[in-house]
């Protein structure tokens, strides 16, 4: 079952002064959004903050057949993005600016 998942990592950027608010909003993440993420094939999702650069580093396990176009088109995800847009760097349409990261080492 574990082999049905792969690691995915990316970074995003927080706006200055919103470190606590970002954590607070994620501490109170909507249950229906958590369910949607899980049901879409995401598990073990973590986000870390580099306080010096305000870079957010996200790492998650996604199912091998994960559909990358599904979540960005979902109304609930769009609602979450609008909710977060005031504290993050975003694209037009409120999606967070994400930069994929390449794995260079993994110890299992």
UniProtKB/TrEMBL annotation:
Molecular function GO terms recorded: L-rhamnose mutarotase activity
UniProt KW Isomerase keyword: yes
Superkingdom in the source lineage: Bacteria
SUPFAM superfamilies in UniProt: Dimeric alpha+beta barrel
E.C. code: 5.1.3.32
Record-level GO BP terms: rhamnose catabolic process
Pfam families: rhaM (PF05336)
Annotated keywords: Carbohydrate metabolism, Cytoplasm, Isomerase, Rhamnose metabolism
Top enzyme class: isomerase
Cellular component per GO, a single term: cytoplasm
UniProt name for this protein: L-rhamnose mutarotase
């Amino acid at each position: 079952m574990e082999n049905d998942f792969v690691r995915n990592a990316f970074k995003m950027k927080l706006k200055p002064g919103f470190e606590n608010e970002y954590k607070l909003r994620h501490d109170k993440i909507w249950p229906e959004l958590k369910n949607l993420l899980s049901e879409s094939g995401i598990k073990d999702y973590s986000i870390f903050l580099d306080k010096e650069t305000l870079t957010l580093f996200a790492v998650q396990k996604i199912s091998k057949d994960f559909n990358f176009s599904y979540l960005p088109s979902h109304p609930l995800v769009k609602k979450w993005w609008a909710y977060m847009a005031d504290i993050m760097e975003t694209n037009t349409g409120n999606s967070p600016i994400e930069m994929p990261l390449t794995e260079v080492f993994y110890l299992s």
